[in-house]
Design goal:
Its EC number is 3.5.2.9. This protein is an alpha+beta fold and about 250 residues long. The chain is built from six helices and 14 strands. It folds into two domains: about 80 residues, Gyrase A, domain 2; about 150 residues, Cyclophilin (Beta Barrel). The strands form three sheets. Strands 5, 6, 7, 9, 10, 12, 13 and 14 form an eight-stranded mixed beta sheet that branches. It has a four-stranded antiparallel beta sheet with strand order 1-2-4-3.
C-alpha cells in the first residue's frame, strides 16, 4: 500500500503572490500540530529554491516564497507529493522546565480558578504543573507561545475586563491554552503565577526561548528559590533546564 502524502492530509490555499497555506484541519489538536511540524521539517530538509520562511500555526503551515524564483504551483506540487504517514501526536523536540512561583501578587487569579474548578489552590497548582504542554505556535507578542493543552477543570474563559498591564513573566491560562507573557502588555488571560525566565531577548542569538514543536513543563518553586533564580536571570547566568523528548 502506498504511503500517504501531504496531499492526502491537507488542502492548499493561495496567499497572495508570495505565499501558500498548507491547511491540515480546523481544530486545535496535537495530531494536526504534529503534521504541521513534520511538513515544515521536510520542507526545510528539502531546501526548496525560493522558499524564504515557514510559519507554523495551530492547524496550518504558511510557506513564504520569492515569486521571482519559484511559483505557487511549483511549491504546491513538491509539497503535495511529500510522504506523510501519521506522526506521533506527542512527539516533541525537547521540553523546557520553567520555574513558577504560583499565587501571591504574581498569580492574582489562582484562588478564583481553583474555586471555580472545585479544588484547593494546591491541587490547582499540582494539576497545572502536572502536564507537559505542547507549543502549538508563537504569536500575539514576540516569544509568546500558545501552550496546550490545559487540563479540563482549569479551562476557564478570559476575564470579562482585560487588565491594562500584565507583567512580563506572568503565567496565564484561558480555555485550552496556557502561556507566559514574554513582555508587559494588556491581557485578559487569568494569571496563576510568575516566572523570572526571559521568554524573549532581542539581543540573544535565539531571541525567542520557545519554538513550535517544543514542550513546556512548569515547575513550582517557593519564594526563596524564585528570588535566587531571578537574580541569576538578571545577571544572565541562568540556563533553563531542558529535557530531551521521550
Amino acid at each position: 500500500m502506498a504511503a500517504d502524502t501531504v496531499a492526502d492530509k491537507a488542502r492548499f490555499l493561495s496567499a497572495g503572490d508570495g505565499g501558500v497555506v498548507v491547511e491540515f484541519g480546523d481544530t486545535v489538536d496535537r495530531t494536526i500540530s504534529a503534521r504541521v511540524m513534520k511538513t515544515a521539517e521536510m520542507i526545510r530538509d528539502a531546501a526548496l529554491d525560493g522558499v524564504t520562511e515557514l510559519v507554523p500555526t495551530f492547524r496550518s503551515l504558511f510557506v513564504h516564497y520569492d515569486p521571482t524564483i519559484t511559483s505557487a504551483s511549483t511549491i504546491t506540487d513538491i509539497i503535495a507529493a511529500m510522504p506523510l504517514d501519521d506522526v506521533e501526536a506527542s512527539a516533541m523536540r525537547h521540553v523546557w522546565r520553567i520555574p513558577v512561583l504560583y499565587g501571591g501578587e504574581g498569580g492574582p487569579d489562582l484562588a478564583d480558578v481553583a474555586a471555580t474548578a472545585g479544588m484547593s489552590e494546591a491541587d490547582a497548582v499540582a494539576l497545572h504543573a502536572g502536564s507537559v504542554y505542547n507549543v502549538y505556535m508563537l504569536g500575539f507578542l514576540p516569544g509568546f507561545g500558545y501552550l496546550g493543552d490545559t487540563p479540563e477543570p482549569l479551562r476557564l474563559p478570559r476575564l470579562e475586563t482585560p487588565r491594562v498591564r500584565v507583567p512580563a513573566g506572568s503565567v496565564a491560562l484561558t480555555g485550552q491554552m496556557t502561556a507566559v507573557y514574554p513582555l508587559e502588555s494588556p491581557g485578559g488571560w487569568r494569571l496563576l503565577g510568575k516566572t523570572p525566565v526571559r521568554f524573549f531577548d532581542i539581543a540573544a542569538e535565539r531571541p525567542a526561548l520557545l519554538a513550535p514543536g517544543d514542550g513546556v513543563r512548569f515547575v513550582p518553586v517557593d519564594d526563596a528559590a524564585y528570588d535566587d533564580i531571578a537574580a541569576l536571570c538578571r545577571e544572565g547566568r541562568y540556563e533553563v533546564e531542558r529535557e530531551d523528548a521521550a
